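Open question from group meeting: does this chain pack into something compact, or does most of it stay loose? Before anyone orders reagents, we agreed to write out a predicted structure and look at it together. Recording both the input and the output here so the notebook holds the full record.
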Amino acid sequence: MLPSPFSKLSLTSEKKRTIISLLLLIAIIGLMRYFDAPLKNEICQKGIVSFELAKDLAVTKNIINSWDEKAKLSAYSSLILDFLFLMVYATFIGLLIHKIVKRMKENSFVSKIGVLFIWGVFLAALFDVIENIALLNLLSGNLNQVWSSAAYYFAVLKFALIFGCIVYILIGWLLILISNFKLKYL
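Structure tokens returned:
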């Protein structure tokens, strides 16, 4: 079984990285929301997410054509910023899962699945890189179905992995709360 990439961190280092990644995550989300605002219109109602999930080249072209130059610059900026964002969210989510894994019985099913999800969030970040490359190609005028399809499928895989990680975090913390409650009151 693969070890957690965070297993060698001291408790102090783990806490610092968690706090720093959380603060960076909040700041980058704020910037991304700023860049996303000019992208939203009748054709592209969900901003950059609509672009990521366009799938069909005709839909992709309609989205790009619905944007003025300011919106296209915002889309570029958002995608470039996303290269930093994907490193930050992967680290933050991975650290949260690592904290749960540490509190579970060693080699239990829950801890083994957790380590897989830690590596899974980094795989999601890799999928995000591929998706961004595809979207940047489309924005640069390389309007080819392969780029629309790549952006779509890698975005879906990324979102699925991140969703799985978030579900694991919620269930993991719930199990910890139940365990603490039992120890304290039963």
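Observations to bring back to the group:
The two ends are 34 Å apart (CA to CA).
Helices lie at 11-36, 48-52, 57-66, 69-103, 109-139, 145-185.
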